[in-house]
Amino acid sequence: MLTETLREILRPHWTKFHPRSALRCMPAIALAILVGSITGHAEWGIMAASGAVSVGFGSYQELGGSRTAPMLYATLGMCISSWIGTLAGQSITATIAATALWGFLYVTISALGPGHQWIALQSVIWMIISTAYPAPGLHALTRGAFVLAGGLLQLICVRFFWWAERRHTPVMGRATPTGACADNHVSDVLKPKSCLFLYALRAALTLGLAAGLYRALKIPNGYWIPMTAAIVLRADMRQSITRGFARMTGTILGTVLATIAASLLRPGPLALSILILIFVWFAYALLWVNYAIFVVPLTAYVVSLLALAGLPEPFVIHHRLLNTLLGGLISLMLHLIFFGWERTRLSRRHSTAEPLTP
């Protein structure tokens, strides 16, 4: 199993390298950063650019035959989740409850198909991020509003390039669901003995625990812990291990890349903006080549983005590495704990089922 896992983590699929598709997603990000810088509201530009980056990955998705729907629904889901997360972040109890609920809903929605799963994951990620930036009343709408603006800008830009080029970005999210719960339907989440319910329960407990941990210990940039746990969470053991180690491997290499860039270039705001665009382009282009390789520029992009927002780059690199490793380990540990319990319950269900007669 270890050998197969390592092969899967390291095996690249260069036929899925799409540099041209990645270019279509860049203008919206560059425009958001530029407008924020020109108007003297760099933080607003960064929030809009972050929304645009997330929605850009939706250009590789399809939902019900529509290429626009994944980007539009993700934009709306991210916006609403940001509003709720910002409000919930004022209380550790509300943070844990909201994060756990979003984890349960993420698994439930994922049962509808790959496109739905991607949309739900973006919503979970932005819920978790926003809990780290709490605000009361109408102030809670700010982050979500700029995420919404960035997402819609990305959708418009991508659609324009599709129209101008008369060709679409190839769909890469059509993979048939695999794993322990592949045969479950969304309604099975209401059945306590079903694989999907157990998976959703594990997701809720894992994300709730990870969110409570970072809030209780006041870990700097600790929202990366539940966010990583959500990203690596999978229905069965092998997929979770593969995803977890790929994420951690890519993060380690990404922090090394960011450290080298910071040491050699000592970038100012302009250089950081250029680095962000370079790293994001590589992330888009490498998205389906290999997950661990994709995480390398993604990590470097996040570090550069937060450095542009004013956070000291060495601390961001340190926090990103430690919190990502911690989130991955928490997810894998809880999977190991629940795996035996889930397997026992499922095996009992199958053993008591009436055998088929020829």
Structural class by sheet pairing and helices: mainly alpha
Total count of domains: 1
Radius of gyration (CA) equals: 20 Å
Cα distance spanning the termini = 35 Å
Mean pLDDT: 89
Number of strands: 0
Order of helices and strands: HHHHHHHHHHHHHH
Largest sheet: none
- The percentage of residues in β strands lies in under 5%
Give the low-confidence spans: 353-358
By DSSP (H or I, 4+ residues per run), the number of helices equals 14
Overall shape: it is globular
The share of residues in helices is: over 70%
Structure report:
The chain has 358 residues and is an all-alpha fold. The protein is globular. It has one domain (2-352). The longest helix has 40 residues, at 313-352. It has 14 helices and no strands. The two termini are 35 Å apart.
What is the element layout, followed by pairings?
Blueprint: H1 2-10, H2 19-24, H3 26-38, H4 42-56, H5 68-88, H6 92-110, H7 114-131, H8 141-165, H9 195-216, H10 224-232, H11 237-265, H12 269-286, H13 291-308, H14 313-352
Helix pairs in contact: 1-11, 3-4, 3-8, 3-12, 4-5, 4-8, 5-7, 5-8, 6-7, 6-9, 7-10, 9-10, 9-14, 10-11, 10-14, 11-13, 11-14, 12-13, 13-14
Outline of the structure:
This protein is mostly helical and 358 residues long.
Please give a handful of descriptors for the protein shown:
14 helices, disordered C terminus, about 75% helix, about 350 residues, mainly alpha
